[in-house]
Amino acid sequence: MIVSRNKKGIIILFFLCIWIIKPALSLGSGDDTGKRPNLLIIMTDQQRFDALSYAGNTILKTPNMDRIANEGVWFKNAHTPCAVCVPARASIFTGHTVENTRVVNNGAAYDTKTPGIMTMKTYDGKIYNNAVTATKTTELGPSMRKDYLNFLDPLLPVRNLQEGEFYDTYTLRADLASRGKDTSENPGQGDIHGITSIPADYHVSAHEAGETLKALERLKDSTFSLTCSFHHPQPPFLAVEEYVNMFPPDSMPLPESINDDMSNSPYKFIKDNLSPLYSDPEKIKYFISEYYALVKEIDDRVGAILDKLDNLGLTENTLVIFMSDHGEMMGAHGMRSKNMFYEESSHIPLMIRFPGRIEPGIKVDSYISLTNVFATIFDYLEMPEQASDGFSLRGLIEGTDKKNGKYLVTEWLSSLKTKPSHMVLKEGWKLMIPDSSSTKVMKALYNLNEDPYEMNNLLGNNPEAYKYESKVAELEYCFIEWLMKSRGIPLPTSGIGLSQYDKEVRVYPNPASGRISIRVAEAQLPANIELLSMDGRLVLKERIYSEYTSLNIQDLIPGMYFHTITDADRFVNTGKLWIK
Fold first, then answer.
1. Given 3.10.20.340, 1.10.10.10, 3.20.190.10, 3.40.720.10, which CATH number is that of 38-156+200-258+291-398?
2. CA–CA separation, 471 vs 425, rounded Å?
3. 55, 256, 300, 491: which could form a disulfide with 511 (CB 3.0–4.6 Å)?
4. Can you list the alpha helix ranges (DSSP code H) found in 78-179?
5. What is the 3-state secondary structure (H, E, C) of 501-552?
6. Average pLDDT estimate for 77-95
7. How is domain 427-579 classified at the CATH fold level?
8. Which residue spans of the chain are classified as CATH 3.40.720.10?
9. What phi and psi, each to the nearest 5 degrees, are found at residue 249?
C-alpha cells in the first residue's frame, strides 16, 4: 500500500487488515518545493525477527533488508505492540497502545461502535483527501484487495483445480505441488502451502513492488510519504517456484521447541493456534521452505525499490523505515500463526535509514515497541509533535536517551480465557500476565538469557517458583508503571492507587494478580509495610528486603485502606489504597 503527502502535511495511513493486498494510493501530487524530507515505509506482514540474515539467519539471505540496517540502524529487541495485524497497525498508525485504541482484534477495524481513539473524527477509517485508487475505494476493508485481482484476472484467469491442488484463499488461483501435504485434508488458510501457479512477474509481491516503483517515478519531483505494505510472508504460504527451489525442505532446521509438551505453558488451553501440520517434524520443514521463499522474494523486491531511490537521486533525502506488524510461530511449541507472546510471534524486524541524520551500522539493544514509530517519524521529518503513547527513537539512536527502552509491554486483549493479556520484557526476563487472578491461564516467567526458546516456565507448577518472587514483582511494577503512563484502564482487581513520599516509595495495586506491587529505594531497605483498614485495624504486615516486592491482598475485602512504610522504625511513606 502506498500513500503520498500533499501540501497540508503528512498523512501516514496503514491499512488495518490482513485481507488487504492494496499496494498503491496517491494523495495528490505532493509538495512542489522538494525541500522537505521524504518518507518511505516498507512493511511486511507476519515476518518474524529471525527471518533476516542481519539477525543471524544463515539459511535465509536478505541482502537488501540488511542493506537498510547496514546503512542505518537495526533495533535488536523490537516487538509488536500486539501480535495480530489490525491491533498492531492501529497502534503504529496512531502511536497509541491497544489499551487506548481499543482495537483488540482484526474485526474491530470495521466496527464503528468500537470505543477508543480509532473512532475519533481524525481516525474515521477513511482514506484522506479524496485518494484515487484503481477501484475508487474510499473505505478500508477487504474489498481493497480487488485492485490486485483486477490486475491478475486478465493475465491469469481462474481455472479448475487438478488432482492434489488447493485454491489460494486470496487469489483463487491453484497451487502446483502437494509438497508434504495429505490431499485428503481440508486446510484452513494457515495450512495452505506449496508452489503457486502464478508466475513471478504476476505474483502479489511483484505487483506491490511494481506499484511502488511507479509511485516513486511519479512523485520524484515532490515531497512524498509512501508506504509499500507487502501482503506476504503471511499465509497462505504459496511461493513462486524459483524461490522455493532455493530452500530444499530437507535442509530446513526444525524449531527447537517443536516438541514442547506445553504442560507448564500459559498457552496450554489454546486450540486455535494448534495444528498437527505444525507439530509434525516431517511436514513443518515444507512450511519453513515456503515461508523463507516468500521472504526471499520480498527481499529482491525491496532491493529494486532501494535501487529506484538511488537512480532517482532520492536516497539522501528519504527516511526509510522497514518493519513487520508481527511474527509467525512456524512450528515453535508446535503452533502456527501469531497472537502469542513467544519470541517467534512478538519479536519483529525494525530498521531505519536516513543518510546524514542516522549514522550507518548502528545497533540498538533497547527494548522497542512499534508504537514508538509514530513519534519517530514526526521527529525526523521535523513536524510538530503529536500526542501519542510512544516516544521518538531518535534519542536511543543517537545515544542521548538514557531513560527509555529499559523494558517494554505488549498486549493481547482478546481470547482472555485461554491466553495471557500482557507481556513485560526487561533485561532478558519475560513475564506473561493473565488479565485476572481468577482465570485458569497461568502466569509465566522466562529467562531468555538462559532459555531463549521459552521451554521452561519458572512459575506455574514449578516447585521452586518462590525463588523468583522478587523478579516477578519487579516486572509487575514495570507493568503498572506502563499502564499509568499510557493511561490504560486498570484490569479487574483494583483501581489506580499510587502513593509517593519524596519519590522513594511507590505502592500500586496489581490489576492482574490480586496483589499490591511495592518499590522501595535500596537505601531504605529493609523496610516494614503495614496495611490498615479505615477503622485503624491492622490487616497486613510484612518485612521488605528487596527493591521490588509483591504482597497478596486477595483475602482483603474491597474498600479503602491506609498503608505505612517504615525504615528501621523511621517513618518513610504513607498513603491511601483502594482495593476493588
1. 3.40.720.10
2. 11
3. 491
4. 85-94, 98-101, 146-152
5. CCCCEEEEEECCCCEEEEEECHHHCCEEEEEEECCCCEEEEEEECCCEEEEE
6. 89
7. Immunoglobulin-like (2.60.40)
8. 38-156+200-258+291-398
9. -55, -40
